[in-house]
Amino acid sequence: MNYKSTKTWIEVNPSLESHPNKNLIHYLARSTCLDPLLMYEIYKQGFKTEEQVWKFLFPSINHLHDPFLMNDMMKSVVRIIQAMKRKESILIFGDYDLDGISSSTLLYTCLKFFGADVSIRLPIRHEGYGISTKAIEEISNKGIALIITVDNGSSAHDAMKAAKEKGIEVIVTDHHEILGKHPDCYAFINPKRSDNLYPYPNLSGAGVAFKLVQALFQVTATLSWEKHMWDFAEMAALGTIADLMPLDGENRVICTLGIHKMNSNPQPILKKLIDLLRISYVDSSKIGFQIAPIFNAIGRIDDPNRATLALTNPHTSEKELKDLIAINSVRQTLSKNQYLLAEEIILTNGWNHDRIIVVEGDFHHGIIGIIAARITENFQKPAIVITQSGTGSARTVQGTDFSIIQPIKSCSEFLVKYGGHEGAAGLTIEMDKIESFRRAIQLVVENEPIKQPIIQYINQMDIKKFPQMLFNDLAALEPFGMGNPKPIFYCPMTSDLKYELFGKLNDHVKLTIHKKELLAFSKGRYLQDKWSSLEFLYTPNCWKDKNFLIHDLRSI
Asked: Averaged over 49-71, what is the pLDDT?
């Protein structure tokens, strides 16, 4: 079977030897013992002196910024200490994804260490994102004096008003964009505040909670932040990577420290989980594709409070962790089946010919974002998936600059509410308006040029000739992610390959070429007949396993 990708492959590196600063790049490569090709990538990110390169390659605790540069940080620290001295009850209110779970866990661990009377409350997905007036009503009946939000609260104006009426003070810690006025709360910590002096705006929710913990330790006279930082870096790294934050600046420092801790001396609960998942070495890919989906699945189709309970209980058993892993297996099967249902509905109605695919059906509200992402991948068109209750999730095609939020905004007259950004959005619609919305949104984009997704690669390198030593050099550039993408290589047409399907649903492919193992996720559906030869884009996967990931491929 021939499989022709619809994506455009572009080489982004002009020849290093023709670069005007090639001598400097070669010098930096020699001084750090890195392959010049990889040093070229670092150089393009803006690291152009020895000091900058060494700081990039070896982040340390000394590179963390002063937490008190954040507005309201000192005010928050004083209020928390006051609450602990008064024996007041403190509630941490988080979010149902891993960023919310990890930020709640690390702040809870810190406050428990200091002897606080503290508890955690995460919303179940059907309750909606963030703290609400309903949640405030529930909390007010439990004698809570202070609420600290993590990973939410910047736009929770009604909840802040309700809390004030109940006599509950709220410290909001968040990292989301501030779309209107500041919340009317006791203190508001958010690195995206326009009046901030903080030098790094792109922290995750867990990163902001980590900075609050840092501040609490730094005001104590007898405790060493340098020593206790390791107790919190892992959770901060999990939240940062799982929330797809840019892995540059302070995020790179936090994630490097957290990953180092996970590999050298992980906290007992994480060690149990890593062992159960048979992960020999933790890196950003293992977190993004194996660890994070477990906790995100709990927030999607179950109760995320189970996750924080497991992570904060030192006696959590292997069976309890296996139960959490099993929830992700259920989510995987549900996602697969519901995607197939969505695909059938799309093809039956001919919506695959629309410029933006809008599909409604009996979909689980916790996985409509996953379904929308798979539709965009397989149909190469933006997609909006709507449940039978009118909740919708939208995604654009990765590798394009098409903004999904703009056409949604243009059709807002049909919607109850909406929000999001260029790549992803959410909406609520009355069911009797879906057909009108579908027609309207096609008209909005009918004159838009079709956006072809682009994948950029840095160099042509036959997989058979890939040098093993490059794996070690790539490990020095970890963690990879947004803002620091793993280098992609192009392998020209090659044959003499073996393959096998794997995964519960046989939807993944493992290729073997010249004893090199390559994994092609979600490509099993294309393997109806034997591929005789392939050209593909690939990247090294794990430096320890010495295997590869295929990003895209073409067969003959």
From this structure: 95
Strands 548-555 and 516-520: parallel
CA distance 433 to 495: 52
Sign of the alpha-carbon dihedral angle for 73, 77, 208, 149: negative
Q: Where are the alpha helices (DSSP H) in 291-433?
A: 292-301, 305-312, 318-349, 368-379, 405-410
The per-residue pLDDT for range 194-238, each reduced to its tens digit, is 998 899 999 999 999 999 999 999 999 899 999 999 999 999 999
What one-letter code names the amino acid at 261?
K
Bond prior to 479 in cis (omega within 30° of 0): yes
Structure-block tokens of residue 248: 């540059």
For residue 447, how many other CB atoms are within 10 A of its CB?
A: 7
Cα 210 to Cα 449: distance, rounded to the nearest angstrom: 44
Choose among 209, 216, 236: nearest CA to 84. Answer: 216
Closest residue by Cα to residue 282 from 268, 299, 265, 306:
265
Whole-number Cα distances in Å, 12 to 68, 248, 390, 428, 522 = 40, 20, 42, 40, 26
Per the structure block, which two tokens stand in for 358? 């809008």
C-alpha closest to that of 81 among 126, 18, 148, 25 = 148
Asked if 32 contacts 53 with a C-beta cutoff of 8 angstroms, the reply is yes
How many angstroms separate the CA atoms of 270 and 260, rounded? 13
pTM for this entry:
0.91
> 219 or 418, which is more confident?
219
- Cα 3 to Cα 556: distance, rounded to the nearest angstrom: 7
